[in-house]
Write a structure and sequence with these properties.
Strand content of chain A: 5-15%
Helix content of chain B: 40-55%
Oligomer: heterodimer
CATH class of the largest domain in chain A: Alpha Beta
CATH class of chain B: Alpha Beta
CATH topology of chain B: Sufe protein. Chain: A
CATH superfamily of the largest domain in chain A: Type I PLP-dependent aspartate aminotransferase-like (Major domain)
Structural class of chain B: alpha+beta
Radius of gyration of chain B: 14 Å
Strand order of the largest sheet of chain B: 1-2-3
Largest interface: A-B, 25 and 27 residues
Number of strands of chain B: 3
Distance between the termini of chain B: 12 Å
Largest sheet of chain A: 7 strands, mixed
Largest sheet of chain B: 3 strands, antiparallel
Order of helices and strands of chain A: EHHHEHEHEHEHEEEHEEHEHHHEH
Strand order of the largest sheet of chain A: 2-8-7-6-5-3-4
Radius of gyration of chain A: 21 Å
Chain lengths: ~400, ~150
């Protein structure tokens, strides 16, 4: 065994691109001014902030003034849901529609809103993880204010029919929020063409730094502000701007925009190679949609073995991977996404997620394909439920 | 969640894995739904010494490590001593388990008991008369954790 690390968990977080770091560094050392200050040092920070806003907006066809910086995807999701449900524009509408396979940032926020007396409908998904448009159409009622459906799922990589959902929401007069934390910068998104009113995004999923993200809010919408203070971000998100982080996000977004076509083609080729290779392991299935999926996502269920021990053995061979098995979550239930797509408990226990990204190579894929079958065989040889 | 070095050692290099051809005591506990199944195989000789013991486990890292440790703790012991093995002892031998994994050590204790039950049943002896009533681990959360 060599000592290399094969990082195959890009849905969890990504390595910061050295070009992004280069762009950020001066804002720690020489360009440390407060963007609100009047002198030149502050103004150069302000210029950098607005440059980043432009770059973040361009990726989704938004206006720069529709982008507001936050601490990350979780805050953006909280702001979108809580802010919209509490907005004056809600006009007494107290119903929110989402899906069963959203990220906890959405689901836990929905639970909190339910405690406040709001009504939430959780739409089921099919076995690929796709939302049923008819069910959505039926769920929209008179007091529905907002629909929140993720652009792509973090565990199984399924890309939701966002354009169709946006059109439906637009036609029915309800607002549409999408959690695009996994999709932003990886697949084309257009807030105009897709009728998206609010969108959450995060920097560290696109080779940018952690601790920074943004929310797109369609011009004219006024979700209730819940971080009050010095009035930064036009009063919508107070707190001195994290200039180095925002500059990093801006540069990461610019690079994704410039390189998306080329990068996604390259990553998709690696994804194909990895999926084909892993599926050669007997009694292994692909989870999520066969074609409507994020470029880097390769998620599987491998029978007769358990995901946590698999991930620990992979780590021992230098491969960083994830699982949605029960044992990894500390509860007796596998992840809500695997349950949501209708996997039986015993199948979901063998879940393995490998997610490739900008810095993944063919050698990485080949290393995984060399060690994984061996590990699976070893664990199956220990498993009392394995039958050839 | 962090495993101790001992847990990782027993996971990466599990002792006594596999089936035992001449086993005269086999016990299986757990279920597929919960995601842990442990199967213990023992050969108990005429002096009631566990001469050989192996296991097969489907489950997380802690499930495999506790199985491995449990086999080490009972191997060469008398049936009487093996009956005394508690999940606490298994955890202690592994330098502790994360709180959410305590149930794996309970499973290991139960697997040993299941094998011994099988041994007495095969001999036509009422297992309860020897082993006593099964212990109740009703609330695993309340079992103190060794750090």
């Amino acid at each position: 065994m060599d000592n290399r690390i094969v990082y195959a968990d890009n849905a969890a977080t990504t390595q910061v691109d050295p070009r992004v770091i280069d762009k950020m560094l001066p804002y720690f050392s020489t360009g440390y001014g407060n963007a609100s200050s009047l002198y030149a040092l502050g103004q150069s920070a302000h210029t950098a902030l607005e440059e980043a806003r432009k770059n973040v907006a361009a990726v989704i066809g938004a206006q720069p003034r529709e982008i507001f910086f936050t601490s990350g995807g979780t805050e953006s999701d909280n702001y979108a849901l809580r802010g919209m449900m509490h907005s004056r524009r809600a006009g007494g509408r107290r119903h929110l529609i989402t899906t069963t396979i959203e990220h906890p940032a959405i689901l836990q926020t929905c639970k909190a809103l339910e405690k406040e007396g709001f009504r939430v409908t959780y739409l089921p998904v099919d076995h690929y993880g796709l939302v049923d448009l008819e069910a959505l159409d039926k769920a929209i009622c008179e007091d529905t204010l907002l629909v929140s459906v993720m652009a792509a799922n973090n565990e199984i990589g399924t890309i939701e029919p966002i354009a169709e959902i946006g059109k439906l929401c637009h036609d029915r007069g309800v607002y549409f929020h999408t959690d695009a934390v996994q999709a932003y910068g990886h697949i084309p998104l257009d807030v105009q063409a897709m009728n998206i009113d609010l969108l959450s995004l995060s920097s560290h999923k696109i080779n940018g730094p952690k601790g920074v993200g943004a929310i797109y809010i369609r011009s004219g919408l006024q979700p209730e502000t819940f971080i009050t203070g010095g009035g930064q971000e036009k009063g919508r998100r107070s707190g001195t701007e994290n200039i180095p982080g925002i500059v990093g996000l801006g540069e990461a977004a610019r690079l994704k925009q410039a390189e998306m076509a080329e990068e996604s083609a390259r990553v998709r080729a690696l994804q194909r190679r990895l999926i084909d290779g892993v599926l050669r392991i007997p009694q292994t299935i692909l989870t999520g949609h066969p074609t409507q999926r994020l470029p880097g996502n390769c998620s599987f269920a491998i029978s007769a073995i358990e995901g946590e021990s698999l991930v620990l053995f992979l780590d021992h061979e230098g491969v960083c991977a994830s699982t949605g098995s029960a044992c990894s979550t500390g509860s007796l239930d596998p992840s809500h996404v695997l349950m949501g797509i209708g996997l039986a408990h015993e199948v979901a226990h063998g879940s393995l997620r490998l997610t490739l990204g900008r810095f993944s190579t063919e050698e990485d894929v080949d290393h995984i394909l060399e060690v994984l079958p061996r590990i699976v065989e070893r664990l199956r040889s220990m498993s009392p439920v394995w039958k050839d | 969640m962090q495993y101790t070095e001992k847990v990782m050692d027993h996971l990466m290099h599990p002792r006594n894995v596999g089936e035992l051809e001449n086993a005269n005591a086999i016990g299986e506990v757990g279920n597929m739904k919960c995601g842990d199944i442990m199967k213990m195989y023992m050969y108990i000789n005429d002096d009631e010494i566990i001469q050989d013991v192996t296991f097969k486990t489907f489950g997380c890292g802690a499930a495999i490590a506790t199985s491995s440790m449990a086999t080490e703790l009972v191997k060469g012991k008398s049936v009487k001593d093996a009956m005394q093995l508690t999940n606490q002892a298994v955890m202690e031998a592994l330098d502790g388990l994360p709180p959410v994994k305590v149930h794996c050590s309970v499973l290991a204790e139960e697997a040993i008991r299941a094998a011994l039950t099988d041994y007495y049943t095969r001999k036509g002896i009422d297992p309860v008369s020897v082993l006593g009533e099964p212990k109740h681990h009703d609330d695993e959360e309340e079992i103190p954790v060794i750090d």
